[in-house]
Amino acid sequence: MFIIHGAYHFWPKRVAFRDDYCLTCESPRRSIAIRTFDVGHIWIPILPVGYWKHWKCTACGSDPHVNPKARRSFIWAGLLCLIAISVILWEAPFDPDLGSTGWILRVAAPAATIWLLTYLLRSPKEPSLRERLAAIPPASDAVCPFCSTPLICGSGPRWSCPACSAVRY
Ligand SMILES: [Zn+2]
Ligand SMILES: [Zn+2]
Fold first, then answer.
1. In a domain, 132, yes or no
2. Which residues line ion ligand 1, judged by CB < 5 Å?
3. Above 60 in pLDDT, residue 49?
4. What burial class does residue 64 get, using C-beta atoms within 10 Å of its C-beta: 0-12 exposed, 13-18 middle, 19+ buried?
5. Which ligand sits closest to the CA of 150?
């Protein structure tokens, strides 16, 4: 099995743009797609993996659809772990060797559980990315943002630039 330690991105070219919702900025943003020739590297062997398109937000530079916050399901999993730890700590016969540490753990685990539970119940469930994207009208540019050439409606469903072949999404 190959473990790819990273990827080199060669020959970047801006190939598309769209009006998007960026999860890092938490607001509607313009994002652009950059196509690069990617080469994975393990240590010395180099693995060409071809052309790949990467979307990035023009304001913060990160992938607009990667949520920087921990997902709620991870927090729920953490909560279940804490409940399990609390139960184990209280079920186990008290070990006098542990002394005050044992008592601190016995109190800290349920306290952390309650804190996490109130956090989960208080923080409103965020609208999904799909809902947010639905609220954003598609880009309506008539001119290519990369080279200022008027866009044309080709044979496909998308408008594109005749000069640099960037595509409007
Ligand atoms: Zn952003
Ligand atoms: Zn162009």
1. no
2. 22, 24-25, 57, 59-60
3. yes
4. buried
5. 2
